[in-house]
Design brief:
With about 280 residues, this protein is mostly beta strands. It has a domain of about 140 residues: YVTN repeat-like/Quinoprotein amine dehydrogenase (Methylamine Dehydrogenase, Chain H), CATH 2.130.10. It has two helices and 23 strands. The protein is globular. InterPro entries: eIF3i (IPR027525), WD40/YVTN_repeat-like_dom_sf (IPR015943), WD40_repeat_dom_sf (IPR036322), WD40_rpt (IPR001680). Pfam families: EIF3I.
Length: about 280
């Protein structure tokens, strides 16, 4: 361990690093969102909310962040957009009452192409696209039958992949939210990532954490699972975790990936030459 970022007093649910990895933002159950200096660990700013914060994300240009809070303790679910160059006293540049728009709690979020819109995933399986100029929804789809756990884009931000408790991950056109591909498993999927190097996606999940103590590693399905992006077929699994995989991130060069699990471990896997050299002709 190189160091720790100390400040939160509750579970940290989401972190996101800006484009040049000089800063990151974290959302926590302690009802705060914090902005950090990556190199020094210094807390640059703190945004206080009246309910636990579930999601946060840096804009592509690194000048704005979005974050959300849960609909608990009588508080509505809301989404905020903040320009981090402004003084903290100026507050959020935009604030949307999600609950008021008859939408369920936001469970995942990301910025769209050129920071012109935002896409949110909800606990009832809905995907919603928000226009940043009008700060209103422009598209709403319901592709999943369960909570959307994670949203990630591909390298050029033309596609997004969603992972859900309904045992599927799905690929969409990020601008139109047109459904393109589906990757099916027999266990909830908590995270899905698109390789920047190959036409592959990596899925992570497994049996619900509450049931893990009653389950063997073999039947819990805790492997990272590899699917072909286009053919939607599974072709490999990587074992290692002794509990559900909560998050997966692929290195920008596509030659390694990291997975974080309910077992308290973060595993970093480097692909061997056989994987990097192999390709499917089609």
């Amino acid at each position: 361990r190189l160091g720790s970022y100390n400040g939160h007093n509750g579970s940290v649910w989401t972190i996101d690093v800006n484009w040049d990895t000089t800063a990151f933002v974290s959302a926590s159950a302690d009802s705060t969102v914090r902005l950090w200096d990556v190199q020094t660990g210094r807390e640059r700013n703190i945004f206080k909310l009246e309910a636990p914060s579930r999601c946060c994300a840096f804009s592509y240009d690194g000048n704005r962040i979005l974050y959300t809070n849960d609909d608990v303790m009588g508080k509505p679910c809301e989404m905020y957009v903040v320009d981090i160059r402004a003084r903290p006293s100026e507050g959020a540049s935009a604030r949307i009452n999600i609950t008021q728009k008859q939408l369920r709690k936001v469970t995942s979020s990301l910025w769209g192409t050129l920071d012109e819109f935002i896409v949110t995933g909800h606990d009832n399986g809905e995907l919603v696209q928000w226009d940043l100029k009008s700060m209103d929804e422009v598209r709403r789809e319901k592709p999943h039958g369960g909570q959307i756990m994670d949203l990630q884009t591909n390298k050029d931000m033309s596609f997004l992949i969603s992972s859900s408790k309904d045992n599927t991950a799905k690929l969409f056109d990020i601008e139109t939210l047109d459904h393109l591909k589906t990757y099916v498993t027999e266990r909830p999927i908590n995270s899905a990532a698109i390789s920047p190097l190959k036409d592959h996606v990596i899925l992570g999940g497994g049996q619900e954490a509450i049931e893990v103590t009653q389950t063997s590693v073999q039947t819990g399905k805790f492997e990272a699972r590899f699917f072909h992006l286009i053919f939607e077929e599974e072709f490999a699994r990587v074992k290692g975790h002794f509990g559900p995989i909560n998050t997966i991130a692929i290195h920008p060069d596509g030659k390694s990936y990291a997975s974080g699990g309910e077992d308290g471990l973060v595993r970093v896997h480097h692909f061997d030459s056989d994987y990097l050299d192999y390709d499917i002709a089609y």
